[in-house]
């Protein structure tokens, strides 16, 4: 076990990490004596480290005394995988939709400022959709409606309140009514929410926990984009099918999604 000693590191964390590293490299549950032999940590100190890790859920100790990675460490790993691979999984579907619809496609995720566009596929660079990577779509946009419908209300509260203040009473009432339909149909429409003649459709992407991971939107000239589900059944069916396929890639199964309250 190589421990780097300098004033800018915490040596006990390095020692603890060597235990996790040993378990990772062995790829099997280990006995106390195995870990002691692999790390060289004294028995008295190793006992304290292992007890602490078990209490925190970082490690799990079974009835036979074998140690393996615990639920908390697995949770951290799943979170890292989701963050690392989300665009790798989504981009092929964005490109597929872009090719099929001849419209721009984008993917937005939640940030502390609101839903943010993090990927844009545009086969016509000269076409201005009124948004780019880093744009926060407005509340009444198709993307905004998806987050209103499916994101945890405690999470979106500040953004919703801030953006709602920009709308008049009638528009807010209509939007609340529309959100109920979005929850039921799992698709949102927006006619020219940012630029005149540019409209959009958005679909939710759910993860294996059946919570909202992000939103995919198809953006184009208003004459290309249906403003209601019944206007172009084939177009809408293809988009919704793609949304379901993306969600499946994140472990989602087609059970009823419980809307936020």
UniProtKB/TrEMBL annotation:
Pfam families: HTH_IclR (PF09339), IclR_C (PF01614). The lineage of its organism: Bacteria, Bacillati, Bacillota, Bacilli, Bacillales. The keyword Metal-binding does not apply. Keywords: DNA-binding, Transcription, Transcription regulation. PROSITE patterns: HTH_ICLR (PS51077), ICLR_ED (PS51078). GO terms for molecular function: DNA binding; DNA-binding transcription factor activity. Residues 10-71 form the HTH iclR-type domain. This is Transcriptional regulator, IclR family. It comes from Heyndrickxia coagulans 36D1. Residues 72-252 form the IclR-ED domain. GO terms for biological process: negative regulation of DNA-templated transcription. SUPFAM superfamilies: GAF domain-like, Winged helix' DNA-binding domain.
């Amino acid at each position: 076990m190589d421990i780097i000693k300098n004033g800018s590191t915490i040596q006990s964390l390095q020692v603890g990490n060597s235990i996790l590293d040993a378990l990772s490299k062995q790829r099997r549950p280990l006995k106390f004596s195995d870990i002691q032999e692999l790390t060289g940590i004294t028995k008295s100190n190793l006992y304290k480290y292992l007890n602490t890790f078990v209490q925190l859920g970082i490690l799990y100790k079974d009835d036979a005394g074998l140690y393996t990675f615990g639920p908390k460490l697995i949770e951290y790993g799943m979170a890292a995988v989701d963050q690392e691979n989300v665009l790798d999984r989504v981009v092929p579907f964005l490109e597929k939709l872009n090719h099929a619809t001849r419209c721009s496609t984008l993917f937005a995720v939640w940030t502390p400022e609101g839903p943010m566009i993090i990927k844009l596929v545009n086969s016509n660079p000269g076409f201005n959709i009124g948004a780019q990577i880093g744009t926060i779509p407005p509340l009444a946009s198709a993307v905004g409606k998806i987050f209103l419908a499916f994101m945890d209300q405690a999470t979106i509260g500040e953004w919703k309140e801030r953006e709602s203040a920009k709308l008049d009473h009638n528009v807010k009432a209509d939007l609340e009514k529309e959100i109920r339909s979005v929850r039921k149909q799992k698709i949102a429409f927006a006619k020219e929410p940012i630029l005149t003649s540019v409209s959009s459709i958005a679909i939710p992407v759910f993860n294996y926990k059946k919570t909202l991971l992000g939103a995919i939107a198809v953006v184009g000239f208003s004459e290309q984009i249906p403003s209601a589900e019944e206007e172009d059944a084939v177009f809408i069916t293809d988009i919704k099918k793609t949304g379901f396929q993306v969600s499946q890639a994140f472990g989602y199964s087609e059970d009823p999604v419980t809307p936020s309250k």
